[in-house]
Amino acid sequence: MIGAIAGDIIGSAYEWHQIKSISFELFSPRSQFTDDTVLTVAVADCILNGKEYAATFREYGRRYPHAGYGGNFRVWLWSDNPKPYNSFGNGSAMRVSPVGFAFSSLDAVLREAERSAAVTHNHPEGIKGAQAVAAAIFLAGQGESKDRIRDYIEKISGYNLRRTLDEIRPSYSFDETCPGSVPESIIAFLESESYEDAVRKAVSLGGDADTMACIAGGIAQAYYGEIPAGIVKRVREILDPPLLAVVDRFERSCQLSAISHQRSDDRGRGGPKADG
């Protein structure tokens, strides 16, 4: 999930300084992790440790109170009796990437994405946005083609993913809803040629740059499998150590799970077996 976090940090410098170009400095003095990262790590913590989403979001949000949360989420965060507030903002989609990496079937990914969204974003569009991003990450990690990913996400979401960035960019502006930013973020990935290219293209739309780059970056990591070492190094320097510790544990857990699944597949095909 560090691909999503890197996208957040890179995009953070351009959230309120929008640009319409892929030519920009990846890191600057304004680069920082935001609520996208904090809540993405919270989702990973829930998956690793079986925690409840609402309580964990409140734990992390209160630990990092100045990370840039939306107004409704801030009210929910400090409420004595927090309830879902029917949001269809892109907050449900920005934090969901660990779900796409951690679960071993598409059905499980869709169910868990809904669970992670519904504690705050229980509007159908809020749930749909989270499911679309998580499913794209899962399919990308399974080695599916971009055409297959596009077709499936269009089928479950109704999003129009046939537009091009050149068509979208001229009139696109800041939009923090799922319907107004998730499809565009996925298109940035679909048109990309590498992880870095996906993040640059998401930022270049001139919208909610940190969240859009977070979404595109998560999918791109799953698809391309590699993030430039210089980006990873800078992100690790910027992340608060407790957040980084969860990221490292989550990524180790996913790697071990992938090895286990590969061994199971090998046994099923009559291939190499583990010792003993």
Could you characterize the architecture of this molecule?
The chain is mostly helical and 276 residues long. It has a single domain (2-268), classed as ADP-ribosylglycohydrolase fold (Orthogonal Bundle), CATH 1.10.4080.10. It contains 15 helices and no strands. The longest helix is centred in the last third of the chain and has 28 residues, at 241-268. Mean pLDDT is 92; it is low at 259-276.
Number of strands: 0
Sheet with the most strands, sense and barrel status: none
Please report the number of helical segments: 15
Write the element-wise H/E pattern from the N-terminal end onward: HHHHHHHHHHHHHHH
Uncertain regions spanning at least 5 consecutive residues: 259-276
Strand content: under 5%
**CATH fold annotation:** ADP-ribosylglycohydrolase fold
The CATH superfamily is known as ADP-ribosylation/Crystallin J1
The total number of structural domains is: 1
Brief overview:
This protein is an all-alpha fold and 276 residues long. It has helices at residues 2-12, 35-49, 53-63, 71-78, 91-94, 97-102, 106-118, 124-141, 146-157, 165-168, 178-190, 195-203, 209-224, 229-238, 241-268.
Topology:
Layout (H helix, E strand, L loop, with lengths): L1 H11 L22 H15 L3 H11 L7 H8 L12 H4 L2 H6 L3 H13 L5 H18 L4 H12 L7 H4 L9 H13 L4 H9 L5 H16 L4 H10 L2 H28 L8
Main attributes of the structure:
276 residues; 64% helix; ADP-ribosylglycohydrolase fold; globular; mainly alpha
